[in-house]
Amino acid sequence: MYLNTPQTYDRRMFTPNAVSSSWIAGFTVCFSLVATIGAQNLYVLRQVVRGRHVRACVAWCVASDALLIALGVAGMAQLLGRSPVLALWLQWGGVLFLLGYGLFACRRALWAPDALVDAPAGGRAVQGVLGVLGGLAVITLLNPHVYLDTVVLIGSIGARQAGQLKWVFVLGAACASLAWFTTLSLAGHHLRGLFADPRAWRVLDGLTGVMMFALAWWVWRGA
After folding, report:
1. How many structural domains is the chain composed of?
2. For 194, which DSSP code?
3. Mean pLDDT by 10 residues, the chain (223 residues)
4. 93: Cβ–Cβ under 8 A, 6 or more apart, which residues?
5. Between 16-34 and 54-71, two packed helices, what is the crossing angle to 10 degrees?
6. Helices (H), the chain
7. For residues 158 and 148, what is the distance between their CA atoms, to the nearest angstrom?
8. What is the domain extent for residue 12?
């Protein structure tokens, strides 16, 4: 009788209502965080407007979000919660990353020649899917602010789900990421005509710089 008790409990918890509630929780929490103007989103938007390997970019973003959230649900969020020093280093690293990204965007907006204003870093054209995904991987994995959102915040919320419902939460979060980046790619496709003018790229870079500085200030206040 005692050995069967945990199985009965898990089976009762895994009801259609519980599954849908966990999925909706993962979807709404993740969507509310990814549907913002951040370094990763702006990089993807730039590739969409250029028409360069959009599907690969979306696939990378969804897979990386799902993996990082799953790591947080599996226990990384609790580990960081028990290590305030590590969490503080992540916050300050995020501040520095966002400031650097914002300064680079402002430099492009103010001083880059028109012929290079829509080009990648250093004015070199990105060749092939590996080049595009390499830049996206750097922005995703070397930005400490990403870990604060996915591993710490979303992961800690998902870790509160009961039993196997944790992974339903992760599935809902992955669906939210897919929905957002698909929407972003469709929106960027309709903006291609607008970005035929180099001035539009300068405006985008200027707004990017302002948003990165605002995010850096927000993370700094949290630190």
Report:
1. 1
2. G
3. 42 73 90 79 86 91 93 76 71 81 82 57 59 89 81 84 87 94 89 78 82 80 65
4. 144
5. 120
6. 5-13, 16-34, 39-50, 54-71, 77-81, 84-111, 128-141, 144-147, 155-158, 165-190, 198-222
7. 14
8. 5-222
